Amino acid sequence: MDRLWSPWRYRYVSKASQSDACIFCVKSGEQRDEENLILHRGLHNFVLLNLYPYTTGHLMVAPYAHIASLEDLPEETSAELMQLTRAAVHHLRAVYRPQGLNAGMNLGECAGAGVAGHLHMHVLPRWAGDANFMTTIGETRIMPEELPETWRKLTAAFRGE
Fold first, then answer.
1. What region holds the HIT domain (predicted)?
2. Catalytic: 120?
């Protein structure tokens, strides 16, 4: 087995394993948006970058409320979640010019949710060949842009700059 070292990941893994706190609740409650990679705050939901993205620009839309079940989501939160998902698609298309996009939720641990107790919508830009041999065989993703740069570009897009 080949090993690729990513020592920067240790900070996240060691923090996550020490706490049972919901990462979405923690991040949304803090006012350090750049540090927490929060791109935009709505009334009921917020938009943030995925700390371990599948592709450059992989973001998520999550409600402030800690809700696991889609059917328990209040109507106004549900409506805004979809509005922010649409805005995210628009901004990702404008900034990164992807050939396609994925948008979706994994509801429940067995469905693939990494944070099963707090629902969230993933939005990922996609390009032909972005799932190449490194991803499929080497189980490794190569990201061409650092998260702070992605945050800068997409925050500006959400602000209308």
1. 23-133
2. yes
Q: Is the pLDDT of residue 38 over 50?
A: yes
50 is an annotated ligand-binding site residue: yes
Q: What is the pLDDT of residue 7?
A: 53
Q: Could you tell me the residue ranges of all domains in the chain? A: 21-159
In terms of Cα–Cα distance, which of 87, 43, 83 is closest to 65? 43
DSSP 71: G
Helix, strand counts (H, E) of the chain: 5, 5
Q: Is 118 annotated as a binding residue?
A: no
Q: Is 113 annotated as a binding-site member?
A: yes
Output the pLDDT for position 110. Answer: 84
φ, ψ (nearest 5 deg) of residue 60: -135, 150
pLDDT at 114 (0 to 100):
80
114 is in an annotated binding site: yes
Domain 21-159 has CATH 3.30.420.10: no
Catalytic residue, candidates 44, 58, 118, 120: 120
* Whole-number pLDDT of residue 133: 44
